[in-house]
């Protein structure tokens, strides 16, 4: 088994900070040795906060100057393929944030190139490492609720996404940026691939936020038919304002299972009987999935140490992208879209 | 104001018993003076349990023999129009169980004939009288969560419906028999009509139950686009086995609201730390909506006493039927269906 | 079996109104035929609200003028013995609000006189009829949590009690007026009598409310040793301001059981992630125990109809008074007090 | 600021393992360089699990052989004074598990010797670092519920304690071993010292477990009067079997606050409507207070790095011991005991 794994973090923004915190404070078997970001003030701040000693504008520069085993890619979706390719060609293992890529061809190319170079690829589906999701999946697998018949998964987030993340051309929009996790979780928990999807979207806050991006939406509801015959629903709302909300309900032939809750902390207060009880809500995704983020990083480092294929890889990333593309085409064309239209038969 | 209202209950089965209990024990301003049902043992049992003095095979017979102000119709959907017509022609006010009818023409005829005879018509949408739904609707109306953007409403019921209620021809199936309440509630809470719907269904338990009815399904997920631009989801599972489950979530521009819960009673027990906490669930609809059933009967009686139009009438019943028909056509034709296809433009 | 039971309600205030509502709207086998209260405006209002046809200043006057089977006594504690005696001597069954009396002698006299006249006596311990308490007691009885080892029962109420109810001389104070239910419930659920009690009290709001009654307290904590060897805690806070709060936890040899909750309605809202979830709380006792009040009245009427001894009678009332007296002596003398000091050996 | 702090862990059992895990995995600024325990198999196992390189039978041996900044003492209470003294005399900072000591003299000696040698002393009150307790304390401090009037704190644990921990002579029994945290938390949250306490105990499971230790008890209820005039209740049950349960309720002049809950994970399942919902419970203390354990270790290391006095030190430890001693004397002598009897005036 390899000793401590050396990592180059790519992207010093919110996600990069979040993963840096997880590794630096909670994953002693990994060490961030370099930080890549062309925006220097942000990079300096993140590097300082987590004691990262080397900083670079680009991955190319880092590769030339410093020794490391792996990269963590947290930059916008269009960068995923070129950065992964560069890393793979230099023998660096890759942790790639969701969504995997903008289209299936890019997914296939990422898969091809990492396979060709014998590189481990892990996708950033932290819900697969969240203790509640993990326990739920194990209990479903063990048959506790019987064959899954229906799943409902929601992700509602508080803040307005940046422009690139709400433009279909640069990101595939909310279905990709917010709901990638739901695409992956529903497929995982149902134990089945999607057969077809139908999507409705709505735009309630665009005007107030001066958003004139074509096809912008801030609410989405997807109806899924799985290959197993089961049904699924994904909902996305962003910005929702009220907190960070990620919950799943699954109905199986034998019963129901709920994963997650709104309550973010068990401190309940009442000081006014006309108002009622007040309970903290989850405010942000780093708070809700703190253990998921820690455990996915532990898993990545451990997979490198033991040369093991990560639990969430190219296959999972590609299916989530396929769902996003089918879902997007559905609302654009106002009809159900089969996954085979996206993936070929 | 009229004094005590005399009622003829039509149907001595589960729903007839439930309404008889509500009136006899909790609505002193109403009195059931006659019970109509051709199945004599059931009728005798119900009459005895609630002290109903006169029994008849048919409404015709009751009208000839006894004085009353109103009927409550709890018999299968195909009987709704002829019974309502007979009651109206004889000047009896009508409480009609959901769904209103099998098709829009029947709904229109029910509306026409009750209007023509100056008869009050109340539909059996008891959720409009449930204290939680009522409080929620008032708070939405008051703007607490802002403009509603998305609603999700589910009804999952424990028992296999009788053959007539799962055959599209005789009942329009689960979307009508189980989810009529969701159709009404989502429209009510969103404050908007449906524009189009898309539906997926699944059949997981039909074979095990020897059901060969064409197009039988036991799981349904509807995706709704409202005229307001808002989105909606309705789910139905029946039989679900695990209990009676009726909950709603609404996301508005300012926040989220949840109505209802799984917990049926605040008695929590833990005797085994490997199993965990055990809490009673709502087992049946009479238990979950006990106050809704009481208050809808109070309302009906009070409307007759004061000659007031009931809160849930022909308009509400007709829209729910329209939703059912659009939803059914959608899964049969695998495409989104506009309400104007059902209702005309 | 007797037909409808005719009742004379004594006291037209909050408790009288509450019981009148329960009977008039939800207990068709009972009828309030007379209302007794010397305060005419309140009496007129209550009589009008519940359609009570005869009104009197005193029970004596009612007895002379009108026919009835039973009385419901809701007036202050010092009136309990004389009113019960008068009713019993005139052959009227008695529903008596808690606390039974001011001291053990009065309890004994109430018991003697009702027994002598063959009168049914029911005490107003509505928690014995609350569906949650009833289910909990049955499950404990069935052995679900094993032999009860420890019980904690609390009653915290929102409003400042009237002067007579906070003066030890006229009411025995909060331990009697607020916590009588806890005394009864803990004894019932533990299946054992009290052996000794120790009490601490505090006065936090008296000064702000200009209360100079000697020994006034607004917080109380009682520590109980049961004859079974088990332990108990009773807490009282009044006025607590935040709502009406009545909950119990019991730990048995096999596990824990919780009865009741703070949440008064399953409507949860979040519109501000810095504030969190807001859920209604129970605001008042009539709201929290609405079914307990209905069922205790049904029980009283049914016991009269079938000549059956009520579930909560003289024995239960006397033990609760004994607990109050022991608890009060304890904080006055700052020492544990044995029940045998109160009851004799 | 000092760089990484080197720690000698004393005790390789459950608590030693728990703290070793917290430091090794989640506190990168600390490093366990030595493990002391005379029981070699357990020591070897713990050392191996957490990669601790040096092992010793005694602290004396470690001090002679290896360089470190601090010790963490997790061994039984009678060892606390001599081990702290030895560490202090050698200039090692001390993290000392609760309870601080067996009596006030030992507490005073621990305080004297650490002060004399300028040694930092932190007591193992991890609830002071639990995010829920911390948030609650801050909100109380900010006045959200007004002046605290009453506090109830419980700790119920699943397993039978070892013989030394249930013998009053060697450990002061459950009030010390299980409820030390409640003593500290109630004093902290009420913002006041204890004035007097009254205690009742019960022994329900001793016989079945063949325990003949004098004065053994497995249930305890303490009634506290604070110097502020406020009231408090502490309950302990061990073994309780049903899980690990640690919750607090505080009532202030303006409202109520609840800290903690029974639910250990938000995964709710129902497969049987006659059984109801099943939710995981907290099973163990390391699970319930995982963040408390991490943050108290971070705090200890950080205090050493910055030469800052820890939040929970000699004062807090001494008061908790005083509460234990007063509580124990109370049930032995069946009377309320003033803290001044324990501490002198």
Q: How would you explain this protein's 3D organization?
A:
Four copies of one chain form a homotetramer. With 345 residues, chain A is α/β, with parallel strands linked by helices. In chain A, 38% of the residues lie in helices and 23% in strands. Chain A has 13 helices and 15 strands. In chain A, the strands form two sheets. Chain A has a seven-stranded mixed beta sheet. A six-stranded parallel beta sheet of chain A has the order 3-2-1-4-5-6, sandwiched between helices. In chain A, helix 1 crosses helix 11 (290-306), helix 4 (80-89) runs parallel beside helix 5 and helix 9 (180-190) packs across helix 12. The radius of gyration of chain A is 20 Å and the shape is globular. Chains A and B meet through strand 7, strand 8, strand 9 and strand 10 of A and strand 7, strand 8, strand 9 and strand 10 of B. Strand 13 of chain B pairs antiparallel with strand 12 of chain C.
In short:
Chain A is α/β, with parallel strands linked by helices.
Q: What are the SSEs and their pairings?
A:
4 copies of one chain form a homotetramer.
Chain A: E1 5-10, H1 14-26, E2 30-36, H2 40-50, E3 54-56, H3 59-65, E4 70-73, H4 80-89, E5 93-96, H5 104-116, E6 121-123, H6 131-141, E7 148-156, H7 168-171, H8 174-177, H9 180-190, E8 194-202, E9 219-226, E10 231-237, E11 245-252, E12 256-259, E13 267-270, E14 277-279, H10 285-288, H11 290-306, H12 314-333, E15 337-338, H13 339-343
Parallel strand pairs in A: 1-2, 1-4, 2-3, 4-5, 5-6, 7-10
Antiparallel strand pairs in A: 7-11, 8-9, 8-15, 9-10, 11-12
Helix pairs in contact in A: 1-11, 4-5, 5-12, 9-12
